[in-house]
Amino acid sequence: xxxxxxxxxxxxxxxxxxxxxxxxxxxxxxxxxxxxxxxxxxxxxxxxxxxxxxxxxxxxxxxxxxxxxxxxxxxxxxxxxxxxxxxxxxxxxxxxxxxxxxxxxxxxxxxxxxxxxxxxxxxxxxxxxxxxxxxxxxxxxxxxxxxxxxxxxxxxxxxxxxxxxxxxxxxxxxxxxxxxxxxxxxxxxxxxxxxxxxxxxxxxxxxxx
Length: 209
Ligand SMILES: Nc1ncnc2c1ncn2[C@@H]1O[C@H](COP(=O)(O)OP(=O)(O)O)[C@@H](O)[C@H]1O
Ligand SMILES: [Mg+2]
What we know:
Pfam families: AA_kinase
Mean pLDDT: 96
InterPro entries: AceGlu_kinase-like_sf (IPR036393), Asp/Glu/Uridylate_kinase (IPR001048), MfnE (IPR011375)
Bound molecules: adenosine-5'-diphosphate, magnesium ion
Number of strands: 10
Helix content: 40-55%
Distance between the termini: 27 Å
Radius of gyration: 16 Å
Protein name: Aspartate/glutamate/uridylate kinase
CATH superfamily: Acetylglutamate kinase-like
Largest sheet: 8 strands, mixed
Keywords: Kinase, Transferase
CATH topology: Carbamate kinase
Number of domains: 1
GO molecular function: kinase activity
């Protein structure tokens, strides 16, 4: 059986994103791994945030425009890598980039707020496909007073207030008894080691305890 992994690729890594995905595609080849890449919103979502400040949107509109910004990042990654996109959770070989808009309008059960961003949306896709969940970002993991936390419970993230995950993710992980690993995408081997189940780098967030 194939191991399923959902990897949320942060908008923070937009410059490195295409090369990173091509390296992952090559690495996944001949391995029994199905890798679904959930794009963040990055600069596309920031435009929506700016527009919201100047013109104002209601929460529903802001939510769908933000999800369309993930769709835009996905289409950008497809163009740069020629990796196929998918709009469903059907099984596939190798790597696919998820375009989330249609799936989420058909399965509309997340709160429509800026507390739900691609971190929580990635968790939803991992939960629905029974996959391990990894967030790839531009920091080593969750930092507390400058120190990297190797492991933290989702409820302790809620107590921390600000972290490098969106505010709804810890609640989502607890509700669905899921875990999530945060890993720095500037070091390719950290991503592959994490996919292989090695916890030597990054932060492991426990939603099940
Ligand atoms: N406690 C924290 N630990 C780590 N990163 C934090 C923390 N608080 C805020 N951050 C910020 O979160 C950023 C990562 O989140 P974000 O910008 O949303 O990235 P991505 O686009 O990859 O989701 C880091 O670059 C860092 O500046
Ligand atoms: Mg983010």
